[in-house]
Amino acid sequence: MLRVLLGQWGIAAGIVLGAAIIAGAIVIARDDDGASASRLGVQLPAGDTLRQRIHEHADFALYIRGERFDFGKPEFIATEDDEKNPNAHIHDPRHTVIHVHREATTWDEFFLSLGFELKDPTMLVEPGQESLKLPSGEVLRSNGTETLKFIVNGVRVDGIAGQNIGGLTRTLISYGDETGEELMAQYLTVTDEACIPSGVCIERGDGSGEHGEPCSTAGGQCN
Predict the structure, then answer these.
(1) Dihedral pair phi/psi, residue 152, rounded to 5°
(2) Strand, coil or helix: what is 49?
(3) DSSP3 helix / strand / coil % (the chain, rounded to 5)
(4) Going by fewer Cβ within 10 Å, which terminus of the chain is more open, N or C?
(5) Span between the terminal Cα atoms of the chain, in Å
(6) C-alpha span between 50 and 43 (Å, rounded)
């Protein structure tokens, strides 16, 4: 009987010891930013490695009470020394075009990097409770007279914050008391220049030589 008990205790102790070794290995791997993980044969994804690199572009515009917001200011433009966000940013000379460098990059991610905070139904906000916080700290909230409205490729949608920024899309974000007709007039001012750095309207240029575009992106050469 004693031998049986000792045998059972030995098995249990072995299981506990094995679990402790594995747990310790994982902790070491995490604490060493992947170096120890590699030595132990444990592969841990780092940063955005699960989001494939892409190079797409999209046109957009933001209107506040009938006035177009200017994204051509230095604090919104990515440079070699300050990308703002490596996954999505604005370059000179096209301040109405977003450059997207990782798949599954959302409007929320882009706007947060510029000091905005957009909340709409795609972020589990109730319809009618949408809001847009500006870099100045002012918060624009949908209310009885002024509302946040969105148009993507000519179609009115409930929100965009949680949606991926689609290549070659045209998006309008508008806050105010606009009528449907006035809203569509704003949408028609959204540029259609994303095709140029994307290299799909060669007759208008291919983006070569523009800041952040050292070569044509046609055929995926700049991915």
Answers:
(1) -125, 120
(2) coil
(3) 30, 25, 45
(4) N
(5) 69
(6) 13
Q: Is the dihedral of CA 16, 22, 24, 30 positive or negative?
A: negative
Tell me how far apart the alpha carbons of residues 98 and 95 are, in angstroms, rounded to a whole number. Answer: 8
Phi then psi for residue 154, to 5 deg, are 85, 0
Average pLDDT over residues 185-204: 94
Find where tokens 């046609």 sit: 218
The amino acid present at 163, given as its one-letter code, is Q
SS3 for 62-95 is: EEECCEECCCCCHHHECCCCCCCCCCEEECCCCC
Distance, CA of 209 to CA of 149 (rounded, Å):
36
pLDDT, one tens digit per residue, over 133-191 is 999 999 999 999 999 999 999 999 999 999 999 999 999 999 999 999 999 999 999 99
